[in-house]
Amino acid sequence: MSILIKNGIIVNANKTFTGDIYIENEIIKEINTNLNIESDEIIDATGKYIIPGGIDVHTHFNLDVGIAVAKDDFYTGTIAAACGGTTSIVDHMGFGPKGCNLHHQLKKYHEYADNIAVIDYGFHGVIQKVDDDILKEIEELIEEGITSFKIYLTYDYKVSDKDALRVFEKLNTLGGITCVHCENNDCVNYLREKFKSHNLKTPIYHAYSRPPECEGEAINRMINIAKIAGNYKLYIVHLSTELGLNYIKMAKESGQNVYAETCPQYLLLNEDKYKLEENQGLKYIMSPPLRKKSDNNALWQGLAQGYINTIATDHCPFDFNGEKQLGKDDFTKCPNGLPGVETRVPLIFSEGVMKNKISINKFVDVISTTPAKIFGLYPKKGAIAIGSDADLVILDPEKEIILSKKYLHENVDYTAYEGMKLKGYPVLTILRGKIIVKNNIFLGQKGDGKFIKREIS
Ligand code: URP
Ligand code: ZN
Ligand code: ZN
């Protein structure tokens, strides 16, 4: 199968130019102007952007949070991703039963995804206890293509500072990367209990019980502990605050190896959502919570200035008229998370590039190239280059849509962006040389996606 794409505006993280791309056997074979190569299909991309397929390095398909299971699995979730211009994901494995080892979850996640996902996928390991056996097992997982691991400083399987230090040290020696969910657990729990005891249980108290200082303190603590461990790679997931960003800036400016990820919800939404009528604030219960407009603005600046490296989604959907209602009388009972895997690329293009907050190259950098580099997928993924996988998205900057649940493929009964006007939308998604989405219609097949055995980057 071969495809020739003609006259597109080809965008990489460092360069934009108009030209043609020839794809054969899953790979980009030629990039040039005026290519005349016989091919099975010719696509005219005049006036449209061609970008490397989006890479979302923070999803939670099939996630079991005890009280509920996330609504998207590796089939529905990856269809939604593909329709929104994403061709690879790295999913965060969820916690397993108490005391389980790392392979327990790895086996389970291969069962969830293998022969099911429609785009390429990898997994981040999850560390829910730290002992000598687990530290040893990390070495085996790296051999099996799991080169990054998440630790949580809150929730049921939070790790202590000492254990965080042990994980950093271990991953430093192996060249792996530690991802951290940064929130100060003791303060959050104290505030939750305090609000509950005063019968303050509406969604806004979710935000009040997780103030910016909880994130800032935990980020700063991890930066310092990572330095004690030898300053290797620390990756802060879902950064939501200006305060946290300031600690990251300080660390980066002093030469520390820290990467930051944010998500569209922290750039585009604010805590007013928790005050919506009819308990609609439940839709936005996630951790960390939505913040203030000033935080949104600071994060956009952090992206433009290079202090924030990636935009992922933390996609973790629960139905509003279903699982989210567990929290109707008490925010602490509401499963945490919101959908977003399908809207990430178009939202950041429309709100970021079209509104001049970031350049088109920065857009490609944060939604594809840098995630690929940090997590060991580059240059196979994340670039339009000869020899790279032909994972490409054609985006029409003139296409206008009003975002609505009806338009989307995510298997959940709402979108956090209902009614938002977008300018620019993906019109074609190609996964390793195969067209899997055309004009918002999924054309691929179950199992089209392959496991990405990641290398140390
Ligand atoms: O609320 C969220 N973010 N749920 C998903 C799990 C996590 O913390 O990333
Ligand atoms: Zn998290
Ligand atoms: Zn998450």
List keywords for this structure.
single chain, 457 residues, alpha/beta, nine-stranded mixed β-sheet, eight-stranded parallel β-sheet, 17 strands, globular, binds N-(aminocarbonyl)-beta-alanine, binds zinc ion
What's this entry about, in short?
This protein has helices at residues 76-83, 102-113, 132-143, 161-174, 185-197, 204-208, 212-228, 242-253, 264-268, 293-304, 344-353, 360-374, and strands spanning 2-11, 16-24, 27-32, 41-44, 49-52, 54-59, 86-92, 120-126, 148-152, 177-181, 234-236, 258-262, 310-311, 392-402, 421-431, 434-438, 441-442.
Description of the molecule:
The structure is a single chain. This protein has 457 residues and is α/β, with parallel strands linked by helices. Helix content is 30%, strand content 22%. It is built from 12 helices and 17 strands. The strands form 2 sheets. Strands 1, 2, 3, 4, 5, 14, 15, 16 and 17 form a 9-stranded mixed β-sheet that branches. An 8-stranded parallel β-sheet has the order 6-7-8-9-10-11-12-13. Helix 3 (132-143) links the parallel strand 8 (120-126) and strand 9. Helix 3 (132-143) packs parallel to helix 4 and helix 4 (161-174) packs across helix 7 (212-228). It binds N-(aminocarbonyl)-beta-alanine and zinc ion (ZN) (2 copies).
